[in-house]
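Journal club side-thread
Mid-discussion, someone asked how the predicted structure for our own chain would compare to the paper's figures. Pasting it here so we can look after the session.
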Amino acid sequence: AVPKYELCVCVGIDLIHDIHCSIARIHINSVSYLFFVNGRGLFVARCLTMASAGVYCCHLATIGRISQGDRLKRLRAPLRALPRGLVSSSSSLSSQISRFNLLSSVHGSTYFQAKSPTRSNEGRRRGAVVVRANSEHDHGDKVVFVAGAAGRTGIRIVRELAASGFKVRAGVRSLTKSSEEIFNGDGAFNGEGKAPVVKVNNVELVLFDVEDAKSLPAAIGEATIVMCCIGAPEDKALDWTLPKRIDGTGTTNLVEAAKAAGVQHFVLQSSLGTGKFGWPASALNLFWNVLDHKRDAELALIASGMAFTIVRPGGMERPTDDYEKTHKITLHAADSIFGGQISRRQVARVMLEAACHPEVAAFKVVEAVAEENALEVPISQLLKNFKPVIQGAGTSNVVEHYERKYQYKQTWQAKWTQVMGFAGIAPEAVNGRLAMIGILGAAGAEFSGQGNVAAQLSGNWPITLGLSLAVVAVSLVPFFKGVTAADAKAGVFGPLAETANGRLAMLALACVLYTEVSTGGVFVDLVKEKIPFL
């Protein structure tokens, strides 16, 4: 056994910025670090950087528990350069642990590779926090409710959970098949060979209907984790009400039922393009605004107060379960990518890791695709790279709580001014796009002998008007959804290229119209007269 003792330490604290917090900081060479030490590892979380050197005020912070042993001996050399200050804070532990990955990736030393901790009720006297490593397969007492368990992604989620030792309540809409038929049948694997057999002894089929809110509490039962992978059925694409009923209202019903049941963690499968308009992901919104309804469900989950993880996968139709052999999972920040593919099995594994490691996955939104040249990195490590979308979630005495509570909500009048005002983003972009199409069309028609612009419009005005309205519509919709020219990522066809070409096209079209109105001729013919070789 390793001898243990308690150490009280004094640390520097920035009273101006963090007067409301119980976090103590050690300021060294303008960089702050926060240390958490226990018998199984050292956790170093990067805190704030000070702008200038100053006088540091030290005070007694809290009680930390540390252990001596081989690991501590390895730490003596790097610790000699630091003041003897170690601090632990129960109110900030969870949020600080999510920032540990940055320093871990920089140093790469074995003594930074500690497991993420969970809180324990032991040792809470005098403000102490006992940090205890998780057991990787200790899930026998955890019950997970999977909504949409009989779907293609749901089947794979249940298989991953069952293989990891979770008890599963598999939400289905019919009990005509057994667990063995659903989760070890033909639909359980679409790669080469047969599906690996998974023991389903701990899988219980339960009936549920997200459109019937009263049926959900019984379906959730004693589950402490909910995984949702429901969606409007693709074989009923002509029913325009389904996306709202299933992806929107239905998922929101499940969120409310989970909150009422005291669920600790809600893992939601959403889609790329849900939070921000972008091509090609947002093309899915042509399916009766399904992305808008998914976003409504996301916002309901974020506002629920429960710990959540939202996973937005790329396209899942083409990749088979063997996709993972050549393409490795990569995770990205919310609203940062709009294309890519990933297999349903890989999505299931991302959601499984979120359930296994809530300390690094909670309150986060990630976008998942699989890339051919990506390195294979443990998903739990990838999850550490992202900041929670809600800092200090679950508390009411932090700045972030009041920032969310009194967050400015833009009115539609302000949005209209931002987009359509004289200095807005739409006028120049829309006019530039219309001018580029117009000058190319007019020049082509004049070269083919169809007369000047006035003559062209007189016989084709319905087509011209329809095309113009279509360009305006497809331009304004992204602008009102928050997309700007800076979001264009198409190689050389970026925002600068569009702006420059649009301005040149507007000048050229104005020149053509002025010349033809003032002379009554055809611009191309006038140019040919001046330039004989044309």
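Post-session note: The first helix runs from residue 70 to 80.
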